[in-house]
Amino acid sequence: MTLHSMSDALECFHANKGIFIDLAIRSNFHIPKIHFMNHYVDSIKRAGTLDNFNTEYTERLHIDLAKDAYHATNKKDEISQMTIWLERKEKVMKHAAYIEWVKADKHPPLRSHWIPPGFNLTRTIKMAKHPSVYMVKISDVVQMYGATFFKAALARFVIQLQRPNLLGARLDDAASGLFLGVSHVSSYHRIKYICQDIFTGRSSTADSIHVQPSRKGNYGRTVPGRFDTVLVNVSDSSSVPLDISQ
């Protein structure tokens, strides 16, 4: 293909590429490869023929940095997942290089004191300073969060705080006749449990509970909700069973 033929083909493409935008196949042509094609003829005239040159180099990077990373995601909000995947892959590569370095008998200096892992099973609940959603209608709590009996459970909880000696039918009667006087509640979408290492004193998240309805992602896609199932100890008494809640 001569340079003249290459220029004619590029001009023909630019003259007819608008059909892809008209058919809503693409919104623009801000593509690096198309931009590079505008410089091929001038580059060949200035530097000569493209000996031993092809696009396989960038294609290979596209597989490693884009295709493999995308296939490792769940196809929802993929950009953030791809970034994390690439970051972890780089860490694995660095660790592999470190192992090869150790095998070459170039050992790092040994630590003077070995710190054993912590075995402290004590957990401290940690809540956010501000709720995830300030004003949620009670009707939305039922529909969006799936809390079908939320209003009845809230009334029962209030009665138990006010009159802890009520049990059984008397408790149910008092809860059914309680006027809550609220139409909105605040919602926390995550509860964290923090543990502290007994040796280092460092705190870290041991577990977390997610309570979040479906929402729109960064690119307008619907992200499914997440509602973790938890075991709630409603009393320290051994006679009261655990309550399984979701």
Description:
With 246 residues, the protein is an alpha+beta fold. It has a domain at 3-103. Helix content is 43%, strand content 17%. It is built from eight helices and ten strands. It has helices spanning 3-16, 18-22, 32-47, 56-71, 78-103, 138-144, 150-162, 168-176, and strands at residues 124-126, 133-137, 184-187, 190-196, 203-212, 215-216, 222-223, 226-227, 230-232, 243-245. A four-stranded antiparallel beta sheet has the order 1-4-5-8, with no helix packed on it. A two-stranded antiparallel sheet has the order 2-3. Strands 6-7 form a two-stranded antiparallel ribbon. α4 (56-71) crosses α5 and α7 packs across α8 (168-176). The chain is elongated, with a radius of gyration of 31 Å. The model has no long low-confidence stretch (mean pLDDT 80).
| Alpha plus pi helix count | 8
CA-atom Rg in angstroms: 31 Å
Uncertain runs: none
- Strand share of the residues? 15-25%
Give the overall shape, derived from the CA principal axes. elongated
User: Main β-sheet, in a few words?
Assistant: 4 strands, antiparallel
Label this structure with key terms:
246 residues, single chain, four-stranded antiparallel sheet, alpha+beta
Short description:
Helix content is 43%, strand content 17%. The chain is an alpha+beta fold and 246 residues long.
